[in-house]
Write a structure and sequence with these properties.
This protein is of the alpha/beta class. It is built from 8 helices and 5 strands, in the order βαβααβααβααβα. It has one domain: P-loop containing nucleotide triphosphate hydrolases (Rossmann fold). It starts with a strand and ends with a helix. The structure holds thymidine-5'-phosphate (TMP).
């Protein structure tokens, strides 16, 4: 028996944390054992790398940032993701490699082929079975994060141009991988976004279970 792998992505202020909890509860409510993790992070080593990535003082080179993202990912995959899937659990990950394409590829301008090489090295043929991208206009997302008043990290402090490029890269990825990636407009109320997420999850689980039965 193998489990499945769901990832959730989105720009700042897309409501990722709230909606991840909704997805977690929804899956558990259907009797699934869900392992929740995040990137960068998820493991002890990964969380130390996350601290560096989000709050490093001084200049970090773009390639250093990319390599650290994939170093944390390697640890998460080997320690947590692969064993959980092999056990038949559902892994729910807050961001994954689509974020590297969006932030380091789109935002920083690193060549996508270089990211693809790291993806191949670190993941082999591991890919999410379903990715939900929560999409909001940059201005809406920024207003939401400013309201929360949290201390910002290196990525949240980036320019409007950077944030626009990140959003565009996510949209491009959704267009490139329409089977795996479901793009959800997250600018509406929590209830309306959750109802769209629920429709995506129901249809995914139905397909998954019918695939298992054949
Ligand atoms: P978050 O998990 O709280 O959203 O913060 C993680 C930040 O790290 C977010 O701004 C996106 C960024 N990030 C990348 O730049 N590349 C990656 O591969 C991942 C997983 C995250």
């Amino acid at each position: 028996m193998t489990g499945f792998f769901i990832t959730v992505e989105g720009g700042d202020g897309a409501g990722k944390t709230t909606h991840l909890t909704f997805i977690y509860e929804w899956l558990r409510g259907r009797g699934m054992n869900v392992v929740r993790t995040r990137e960068p992070g998820g493991t002890d080593v990964g969380e130390s790398i996350r601290e560096l990535l989000l709050h490093a003082v001084g200049k970090m080179f773009d390639d250093t940032e990319l390599l650290l993202m994939f170093a944390a990912r390697m640890q998460n995959i080997e320690q947590l993701i692969k064993p959980a899937i092999a056990k038949g659990d559902c892994v729910l990950c807050d961001r994954f490699t689509d974020a590297s394409y969006a932030y380091q590829g789109g935002g920083r301008g690193i060549n996508m082929d270089r990211i693809a090489e790291l993806e191949q090295w670190v993941q082999g043929d591991l890919q999410p079975d379903l990715t939900i991208i929560l999409d909001v206009p940059i201005e809406t997302g920024m207003k939401r994060t400013q309201k929360r008043g949290e201390v910002s990290d290196r990525f949240e402090r980036e320019s409007m141009t950077f944030k626009k490029a990140v959003r565009q890269s996510y949209l491009d990825r959704a267009a490139c991988f329409p089977k795996r990636i479901q793009l959800i407009d997250a600018s509406g109320s929590i209830e309306s976004v959750e109802s769209n997420i629920e429709a995506v999850l129901s249809s995914f689980c139905e397909c998954w279970l019918s695939g298992k039965a054949t």
